[in-house]
Fold Serine aminopeptidase S33 domain-containing protein.
Amino acid sequence: MELVDWPAGTERSFLRNAQGLRLPLVRVPAANARATVVLVHGVAVCARHDFLRAPRRGARHTTFDGSFAHALWRAGLTLVLYDQQGMGEADSVRPSCRHYFERFDDLAEDLLAVTAAAAAAAPPALPLYWLGLSMGGGVCVRASQLRATPAAAGLVLLAPMLCLTAAREELLLPALGIRNRHLYPVMRQLSACIPTAQLVRKAPNAAFPHLEEELLAEPLNHSAPLRVRVAAEFVLATEAFMGGGEAARALEAARVGDVLLVHALADTLAEPDGSRAAYERMSVEGEKALLLVGGGGVEGSFRREGKGRGGAAAAALERLKDCGMWHALTLEPGFERLGEAIGLWIGESAAARG
């Protein structure tokens, strides 16, 4: 992350997790901070890629000013960014194998460790939030199930990886008509026998091709098919989330303060049905809100319930319901306005906590 011209006062460090792996951390303190937000990136990228921006189209994401992260910081939120194990500049559990992890729960445990470090660096009364994009959203939900009480004051889940039924239809071997779903019956066996093989394809960002160029421009990112173990863990995690009932891994088991879910209706990578289910099934102590982003003739919607505040954040989120996004919500056109609205929402949530 050394390429970035971070704001003055930015702190860089490393956290050693329970597996002995070093995870790089960047803490960007805000003046008169209202809350701390831990940013959790998606699969096969680094934190810098998901939350900063490119200085020009097609370039690496090295610019803080004008980025999604900058919008949050300007709202008075101290930011903590980290690379998840096996990705970015973080250590890998198998040193020669990048963009790999053994268990999805390892990522959730890492988030809890990062949270503890972030809380220790902040004033005692400052609330702490998690913001997860795509896979990062799934990590946040899983981490919220691993403690008897909420580990974060609130969650912001952007296109969270909670439901992956559409990904089953992505072509794996186009010439033979073989799709990802054809591997599902033997996923566990493949995960045990060839865990690091790169077999499972994910959908490209056809809606915004320049972002696909920027993904490829970053050498820390991974554009090849997902590794078998990673894909298998995704399938197991998302099927557990969507399974329903009171199972320990179902969405009902999440322990949450406030929660905001944002999902584009056009998303074909992580399905909006996951966010709909989370909104309906997760119990919260305060407010839960769901923004479904439409556009291109598809009408979006905004809903909220619980101890709703109905302030500036709700109005700002409502105005985004037809802005036309796909999946990379922190990077696609409209990300600045989304960052500002989320900053308002977290600020109102923190104020309501007293």
